[in-house]
Amino acid sequence: MRATTPGARRASSSPAVTVLAAAVLFTGMQFSMAAGAHADESPSTPPGTESTSPPPQVDGNAPGLKLRGGATLAPAKVLDIISVIESEGGEERREDTNENVKFALQAEVLFGKDSAKLSPEANSRIAAIANEIRKQSTAKVRVFGFTDDLGSAAHGDKLSKERAEAVHGVLDKELASAGITYEIRGYGEDYPIADNSNEEGRKKNRRVEVSFPRGESGGSQN
Asked: Which of 42-51, 79-88, 170-179 has the lowest mean pLDDT?
């Protein structure tokens, strides 16, 4: 077992059906999308945390700003509003921001233990995500796989990539005529979203995430 990486995110609690709205600062690099699916083994920031919105322009001399003598404004920062919907057991999670939509499915609802073979029920869950991608009319989709920190890091990297590829295979069939470019990565135990010291947290970390930009129409936020 390896220690949780410094980039670990805070574990989240999940009541029955939770809808959260929070202002979260997004900083980090922007991913570059090459034609076709590819893998990048060493990203410098957690996936899906970039923002493409430019900082707002603020006039420090505007009459509406009342600053004490000698005070100055801090640099402008971009804030995104996040809406999070999670199923009762945390098996499925949807996050909506101003710019992106992300679905996270726990590995247990898609695969058998330590397997990258999709279960019979997995296709319908992935098809629902494909339908949302179709509504958003997006041309770029990311499929990222993650594991807990049990076992070797090499095994986790391989398994998470294989699981991401399996989900991509279903999406590609569902959206064959949509002309979508896919980015497929396996991050293994990197970027946990919960505590790996207990099974409840490890279960959340074993997941596949599908994310894509919001369309101009905004699509559905059910």
From this structure: 42-51
